[in-house]
Amino acid sequence: MSRITLDFSKSKGIIPPELYGHFSEQIGGVFYDGLWVGEDSKIENVRGFRKKLVDSFARLAPPVLRWPGGCFAETYDWRDGIGPRALRPRRINWWYSHDGRVESNQVGTHEFVDFCRMVGAQPYIAANMTSLSPLHIRNWIEYCEAPAGLTTLADERAANGETTPFGVHYWGIGNENWGGGGQMTPEACADEFIRFTTICKPLAPFDLKFIMCGANGHDLDWTKRLLGRWSSRRWHETDAWGMSVHYYTNAFSGSDDLTFDESGWYDELFRADFMRRIVDDHRLVMDEFDPERKLRLVVDEWGNWHKDGSGPSRGCNLFEQQSNMRDAAVAALTLNIFNNRCDVVGMANVAQLCNNLHSLYLAGGGGFVETPNYYVFDMFRGHKGGRQIRACVEAEQKEAERYGALELLSASASVKDGTLTLTMANLSLTECQRVEINTLGGGLANSGKLRILTHSEPQTCNTFEDPYAVVPVETAADLSENGMVTLPPASVAVLTVNTED
C-alpha cells in the first residue's frame, strides 16, 4: 500500500497559472494545417484558425502561449508577418533543410495575438537575438505595445487592423543561444542580452518581462557563467524577469517509439523524473548570483522527444509524434514536479501544441484529435492559482544507476476556494496502487470525485478514426475509511474534495 500525507501547514505558495503554459513554433505542421487552415478553408475556422482546436484549447484556460520559436526565431523577421497576407514574403526558414518547406508568413504577430485572445492566453514572444539588431526587436515591442496614436509604429499597427496594444508582456530575448542561436559562449549570451534589453529602458511603462537564454538540460556550467557575467554588471538598465531552461527526455536518440516494452516505459520515466534535478540544481547555482530569488526559472520547452513519423501525417510534418499513456504519465509527473517547486519555477511551456513533440492536438485536413496529454492538462486545471500544500509520498521505488530512485507514485496538491486538488500518477506499468490519504493541520470531506485516465493497453493512442480511445473516467470517491483510493497501473488521476476547517 502507498501513502500520501497532506500537510496543510506547509506550502511553497501560490501555484502560478503560467506553469501550465504552451509552446507553438512555426515548424512543420504546428500552424499550417494544424492551428491555421485559413479563412477560406472548407474546414470550420475562426478567422483562419481551426475552430475545433480553438474551442478545445479555450476550455483548458491556457495561461500563456510562446511563439514563434524555438529555433524558427533565429532567422525570423517580425516585419515579414505584418500587413496584407497576400503581400507577405515567402522565406526559407530555419527548418527548410529538414523538410523543404518555405515559410509563407500567413501567421504573424496579429494572427498570433488574435489566437491568444480567442483562447484567453497571454502571448509570450521569443525574439530573435541571433540575426537581428537590438533596435529591430525594440521596434517590435513598440509596434506591439505603444498606445494608439502615440508613435508612427502604433499608427502602423492600427493601419494593419489593431489600434489597441497587444498586451505582450513576456519577451524571450534569444533562444538556445548555446546552439542554433549563434553558438555563443555563456558570456557572449549575457553580453548580448544586456545589450538588447538596455535599449528597451524607455519602454518600461509597458510592463515588460524579459527572459534570458539559459541552459540546455543539466548544463550547470552555462548557468554559472551566464549569471556570473550578467550579475557582474554594476547596474542593469532593464531588469531580467527570468532565465530559461530547455529539457527533452530523449532528444535525437531515436530509440523511443510507440511500441515500448517494460524497460522502455521505465526508462522514459526515469528521464522525465530527472526534471527534479534540472530545476533544483539550476536554482542552486542561480542562488549564488541571485540570492533574493528575484529571477524566475522558466522551463519554456519540455516534453518527450520520440522518433518522428508516428503521427497521422506519417512523417510529412517534421517531428510529429503520437502520444499514449507513457506520454501522459510523463506530463503528469512533470507538472507535479513543477507544482511542488512553484516557488522556483515561474513559467513552463510544454512543447508543442499541435502536430509535433508531446502535443495536445493532432490535426490534418478534416481530422482532429485531443491526445492523452490534453486530458492531463485538463485534469490538472484546478491547481492553477491554488495554494500549494505539501504532499509527502510513501511508495515503492525503482532504482537506476544513472538516475537514482524513481518513486512509483507521483503527487502534488493544492487548495483553492475550499477545494483540494490532488493529482497523482501511478507510474507502475503492471501493478495497481491502493493509496491511503492522510492529513495534517486540516481535514477533508468524506466524499469527493476521482477522475482517472488510463487504458488496459498503455500503448494505445487517440486517432482520427478512434478519437476517444484514451479518455478519463470520473467516479465518486468514498474517503470515509482511511481515505483510500485505488489507481490502476499506468494511470493519471485527480481527486477533488472539499476541505474542512
What this model shows, in words?
This protein is of the alpha/beta class and 501 residues long. The chain has two domains: 16-384, TIM Barrel; 388-500, Immunoglobulin-like. Helices cover 24% and strands 27% of the residues. Strands 1, 2, 17, 20, 21, 22, 23, 24, 25, 26 and 27 form an eleven-stranded mixed beta sheet that branches.
In short:
The protein has helices at 51-59, 96-99, 109-119, 134-145, 152-159, 186-198, 220-231, 262-273, 275-289, 325-339, 372-379, and strands at 2-7, 13-14, 21-23, 45-46, 49-50, 64-67, 91-92, 102-103, 122-127, 170-173, 209-212, 242-248, 296-303, 345-351, 361-364, 367-370, 387-394, 397-400, 404-407, 409-416, 419-426, 433-440, 443-444, 447-453, 473-478, 484-487, 491-500. With 501 residues, it is an alpha/beta fold.
**CATH homologous superfamily of the largest domain?**
Glycosidases
Q: What's the structural domain tally?
A: 2
Separation of the first and last Cα atoms: 28 Å
Question: CATH top level of the largest domain?
Answer: Alpha Beta
- The coarse overall form would be globular
CATH fold category name of the largest domain: TIM Barrel
Strand content is: 25-35%
Structure annotation, total helices: 11
**Rg on CA atoms, Å:** 22 Å
The residue-averaged pLDDT reads 96
The description of the largest β-sheet is: 11 strands, mixed
For the secondary structure, the number of strands is: 27
| Spans of at least 5 consecutive residues with low confidence | none
